[in-house]
Amino acid sequence: MQKNKLLSKVFEVPHTADAAIDVLGRSLEELFINAALGMLLILEVNSQERDVGYEKILLAENDHESLLVAVLSEILYLVEQKRYPNNIQVKISGSQLESTFQCFPIVSYNREIKAVTFNQLNIMQINGQFQTRIVFDI
After folding, report:
1. Rounded-to-integer distance, Cα 25 and Cα 33, Å
2. Which of 96, 84, 32 is nearest to 55 (CA)?
3. DSSP conformation letters of 63-112
4. Contact at 8 Å (CB) between 82 and 43?
5. How crowded is residue 124: how many other Cβ atoms within 10 Å of its Cβ?
6. Which one of 5, 32, 95, 118 is separated from 66 by 20 to 30 angstroms, measured CA to CA?
7. Tens digit of each residue's pLDDT, the chain (138 residues)
């Protein structure tokens, strides 16, 4: 996804001592993808251009908010392991998620996120569009 297009779906929100984004998506899957890309924008990742293969994440949680925190936490772990996810695909069925993406070696990232939180997290569908706020502990 191009950065300009993403910026119309993800908005960084001023937040005391943490980082927060408001995320939009036409579908639940798009919301999750935009949330992941928004988190990666906060991290300011610099990656190499050669991919090192594909990754797959399979998760099951009790609700969509828990599923979002879980997948973002998994992606954050990949970044900490110096792997940058790109071309993120998400399929959600009930409370189960499958995500696949290419990984690229990370050269550096400029900001650190310690954790994805449940603070203010509430996925809503308003006027046919999904939206939520995600707060990150930095």
Report:
1. 8
2. 84
3. SHHHHHHHHHHHHHHHHHTTEEEEEEEEEEETTEEEEEEEEEEEEEESS-
4. no
5. 9
6. 5
7. 334 445 567 877 766 668 999 999 999 999 999 999 999 999 999 999 998 999 999 999 999 999 999 999 999 999 999 999 999 999 999 999 999 999 999 999 899 999 999 999 999 999 999 999 999 999
